[in-house]
């Protein structure tokens, strides 16, 4: 799969800009603030229908403008695919494939497989479990439509159960039968999601460990651990046991929406005991493992975006990453950097064609 060209209209800092891309490596270089990351985010937008960096859709419209349009032309297999994402202030976002708008954005997820590696990924280490759950969900969803459907349904029922708990508290009432309906639905959806997450991580963790070993030359031992209350009991029992707590809190305190991933290095949390370079290597290994998994599931080389890849990494680790890209069939690669000479030196080590865009 190849992104042949990209055009932007009123997207972030770009008024009107077009690019024609190399089928292998594309580098965006320039000072901070010129829009390198915004171009990568536009490519991400075409795959996921949203920004990687700013979830408030209207804030991706250029200042003092009323709309944005992102237009991408792809080659996928023998077909040409035109994807357009557009948003007008006060209206819903529209995603079109070859002129036809999607009724549900979820139908588009996974059609254009993509992996991004960015300094913003550090949120996976420093922020709460919600960020890490979203990572798991985004990887599985790209290759499993039913998983995404179950997840959407689970979250809808969860919101309804939470609203009911608030209603009980405000009106000093309680209806066990109504609550039980929500408990059963949460159990049905939640059990499937838990089982798929568990199966995914059993496959994913060995891939991740191999990736980290290659980046670090085997100097450190890392691990991922999946934490879920569903290892201890089935969800219906957990919900029953937490009823009094949930009534007091007025929200659902147990379930797969509390799952987490624990990141460890040498048996200790990497958040506390990992250097900046080790943390960055950990995150890159995580994302390269994501690439491997999606490629194996979809049979398509995902597009790989490397945002500010040289930040906080020593030269040896950067060289290891470049070699990985050189040695394997990585498909199309987009990267950004502030130093043109450093970028060119790095990509010249890779025996692939490349294009450098100076912004």
Describe the secondary-structure layout.
Elements: E1 2-11, E2 14-20, E3 25-29, H1 36-48, E4 67-76, E5 79-88, E6 94-97, E7 100-101, E8 114-117, H2 123-126, H3 129-141, H4 145-171, H5 176-216, E9 222-227, H6 235-241, H7 243-249, E10 260-265, E11 268-269, H8 270-273, H9 276-298, E12 303-307, H10 315-327, E13 333-337, H11 340-348, E14 354-358
Helix pairs in contact: 4-5, 5-6, 5-9
Residue ranges: pLDDT <50 for 5 or more in a row? none
Q: H/E series, N to C?
A: EEEHEEEEEHHHHEHHEEHHEHEHE
Strand order of the largest sheet: 2-1-4-5-6-7
* Assembly state of the chains shown: single chain
Radius of gyration: 22 Å
* Distance between the amino and carboxyl termini: 26 Å
Total DSSP helices? 11
What can you tell me about this protein's structure?
This protein starts with a strand and ends with a strand. It has helices at residues 36-48, 123-126, 129-141, 145-171, 176-216, 235-241, 243-249, 270-273, 276-298, 315-327, 340-348, and strands at residues 2-11, 14-20, 25-29, 67-76, 79-88, 94-97, 100-101, 114-117, 222-227, 260-265, 268-269, 303-307, 333-337, 354-358. The model has no long low-confidence stretch (mean pLDDT 91). Helix 4 packs across helix 5, helix 5 crosses helix 6 and helix 5 crosses helix 9. Helices cover 45% and strands 23% of the residues. The chain has eleven helices and 14 strands. It is globular, with a radius of gyration of 22 Å. The longest helix has 41 residues, at 176-216. The protein is of the alpha/beta class. The strands form three sheets. Strands 2-1-4-5-6-7 form a six-stranded antiparallel β-sheet, with helices on one face. Strands 8-12-13-3-14 form a five-stranded parallel β-sheet, with helices on both faces.
